[in-house]
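Take a record.
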Amino acid sequence: MTDSASQSADALGIVRNRTFDEIAVGDSASIERTLGAADIQLFAVMSGDVNPQHLDPQFAAASRFQGVIAHGMWGGALISAVLGTRLPGPGTIYLGQTLRFLAPVRIGDTLTVRVTVIERDVERHRLRLACQCINQDGTTVIDGEASVIAPTERIERPRSTLPDVRLCAGKDGARRLLEHVRPLPAVRTAVVHPCDELSLSAALDARAAGLIEPVLVAPRARLVAVAAAAGLDLSGIAIEDVPHSHAAAARAVELARCGEVEALMKGSLHTDELMAAVVDAIGGLRTARRVSHCFLMQTPAYPRPFIITDAAINIAPTLEHKADIIRNAIDLAHAIGVAQPRVAILAAVETVSAAMPATLDAAALCKMADRGQIAGGMLDGPLAFDNAISVAAARIKGIRSEVAGAADILVVPDLESGNMLAKQLEYLGGAASAGIVLGARVPIVLTSRADSRESRIASCALALLLAHHHRTTPP
């Protein structure tokens, strides 16, 4: 007998057992589960097992398994789920379990978890069951035996509705970034027109964190008034007195061009006003590359930090623009310690179609990488978003790629799609984020009024990291 009856009950939202008298040697039941990053994190939270082999991609990459793997007892818990809900089901008393862990379980692996009755003890209503977890390639990753007391009375109950569990990234991403840059001395930074409490407080917070040595470029009288109203102390902070926001942008760019500051930070002026001064053909901070923006993000549903670009500067980038956007993102990845970043060029589909220009650009960019025109990373595309971040989705669609399911950089087709993706991840996906502009002579912290304090601090940490990186590798 198979577990088809249990599967039918599942479809009706019912859990139903099989009594001892209904069970014969050879009967079996199974469930199927695909391992996601959130499964590993949730198991770590519940068990307290924070072994870096399961939670730290950098550590895990250097281990014998060459990547993050599931806790062994995650598979053991799935065996318990089959025994408690399928065979024998509700009313089962678990007596013992032996397990052998034969192969690692990786993110994206799909396990078939099966138990099979191999012995019945009629007098004591006990069963001995063979247990196996087999992955999508047919490899047995766990096997063993379970001993249980089977129920003798029929039990049929509505399936319990479990609460939704949402893991939040919290401040961990920002904390690790701050720890990474802690040995570096603060970088002198022009804070452009911080003439409201939010932007002025952000500059002072970054100073207190040891990230920047601020030079406030704004009308002095207005700065003093804002500081007094907010109870902020400006003593010991350099102020460049200018008449208005337009002059503040021009003066900040001049300070950067002359080497008096190594980074810029946006205050309360509009982004367009600051960036117009940055990209000015005569007095700006242009390099040979297109200026672009990167979000560095970390979300509970993905095992590593990743970059989204460009979601703030280039509205409808051309192929040439996208090449520079990718080069800038690769530079950021190198600066944060990713030696060979995996670059996924996103589109709505993973096949090349003349009707969808983003797929044509993706194919051309990959060929440019093949010919050495884009260096320092591994490119693949077009890739739909699910294929870029999910090994399971890529496998289902038959995509074989070192990038698919493991992307470090997500290159979006245009600003609108990138901006929506980043904000959806932040507001609905619990992502922590930091933003930075690259491609100019100095890094530019370009935060939004809606950004959290943690996001602003993390963005300043990125600017510090890049400023020091540029001392040895000029943009």
Observations:
- The chain has three domains: 4-158, 169-287, 288-439.
- Residues 184 and 468 are 8 Å apart (CA to CA).
- The mean pLDDT is 90.
- The first strand starts at residue 14 and ends at 16.
